[in-house]
């Protein structure tokens, strides 16, 4: 039995941020990631009769996004491929685990954990992700060494990851 159109649209809307993030992790470009996301959504609607249920859909979407993202990279002659197939295969296990976590729970946990960061850490996160600046640009803007910014962002990422994991585990108890 195939997934219904209502279920398909529900998953696409619910998991939009997760799928877009997956596309972005390969492409490292917002516009390309959005294009690939839209292509995958269109393809999912066209292929919906071959998709069994929501769990099958989550894996199918990721594989389709992966293929479409690599097609997009190949179409951009000379563009670097930032994540190769082997690395994505290693990440697949973690992605499957996160498929089981509702996007709303992840976003709530991220917001909570972001609120616990100090002002300097939030400023770095805003410069990096809110304004899309690279570490070198952040370093110049803040009059710091690039390596200092890398280390600070790395520590912030680790702190956020630990906080999010803790909150999600506590919610499951």
What is the count of β-strands?
Answer: 0
Residue share in helices? over 70%
User: What is the top-level CATH class of the largest domain?
Assistant: Mainly Alpha
Q: SSE order, as H and E?
A: HHHHHHHHH
Oligomer: single chain
CATH topology of the largest domain: Rna Polymerase Sigma Factor, Chain: A
Protein structure class: mainly alpha
Overall number of structural domains: 2
**What is the makeup of the main sheet?**
none
Total DSSP helices: 9
The CATH architecture of the largest domain is Orthogonal Bundle
Name the average pLDDT.
81
Strand content: under 5%
As residue ranges, the low-confidence spans are none
Distance between the termini: 34 Å
> If you compute it from the alpha carbons, what radius of gyration comes out, rounded to the nearest whole angstrom?
18 Å
Describe this structure in words.
This protein is an all-alpha fold and 173 residues long. The chain has two domains: 5-99, Orthogonal Bundle (Rna Polymerase Sigma Factor, Chain: A); 103-172, Winged helix-like DNA-binding domain superfamily/Winged helix DNA-binding domain (Arc Repressor Mutant, subunit A, Orthogonal Bundle), CATH 1.10.10.10. Helices cover 79% and strands 0% of the residues. The chain has helices at residues 5-14, 16-27, 30-46, 54-75, 85-99, 103-115, 119-130, 135-142, 146-172. α2 (16-27) packs across α3 (30-46), α2 runs parallel beside α4 and α8 (135-142) crosses α9. It is globular and about 55 Å long. The mean pLDDT is 81.
């Amino acid at each position: 039995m195939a997934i219904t159109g209502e279920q398909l649209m529900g998953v696409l809307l619910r998991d939009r941020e997760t799928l877009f993030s997956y596309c972005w992790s390969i492409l490292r470009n917002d516009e390309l990631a959005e294009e690939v996301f839209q292509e995958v959504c269109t393809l999912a609607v066209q292929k919906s009769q071959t998709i069994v249920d929501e769990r099958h859909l989550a894996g199918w979407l990721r594989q389709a996004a992966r293929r479409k993202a690599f097609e997009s990279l190949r179409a951009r002659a000379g563009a670097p491929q930032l994540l190769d197939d082997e690395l994505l295969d290693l990440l697949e296990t973690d992605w499957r685990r996160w498929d089981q976590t509702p996007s709303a729970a992840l976003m709530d946990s991220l917001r909570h954990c972001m609120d616990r960061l100090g002002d300097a850490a939030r400023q770095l996160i805003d410069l990096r992700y809110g304004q899309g600046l690279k570490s070198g640009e952040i370093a110049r803007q803040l009059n710091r060494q690039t390596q200092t910014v890398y280390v600070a962002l790395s520590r912030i990422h680790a702190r956020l990851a630990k906080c999010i994991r803790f909150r999600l585990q506590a919610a499951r108890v």
